[in-house]
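[INFO] parsing input record for HTH arsR-type domain-containing protein
[DEBUG] input buffer:
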Amino acid sequence: MRDFLAITKALSDENRTRAIMLLGRGELCLCQIIEMLRLAPSTVSKHMTVLHHAGLVASRKVGRWMYFRLPDEDAPAEVLEALSWVRGSLRNDRQ
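[DEBUG] output buffer:
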């Protein structure tokens, strides 16, 4: 139940779903996500933390830079299903 709630909470915010859609194109640095979402760095950082805790994004740190990507195919089934649903539902949405 806890995983389900974490995933649905993470997906309940428009900016977090926009970040997921951006990451569908490939790995991005936090600074790139900030620029694309046009939000304050601290706001984007908090959004990415929520997504990471829900398992919806993977991250790695290189020096001072933080990179995010969608999880690999070995992620839990519920995570992959949620990401597939979001990406399929919003594929043609240009907002």
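[INFO] DSSP finds five helices and three strands in the chain.
[INFO] shutting down worker
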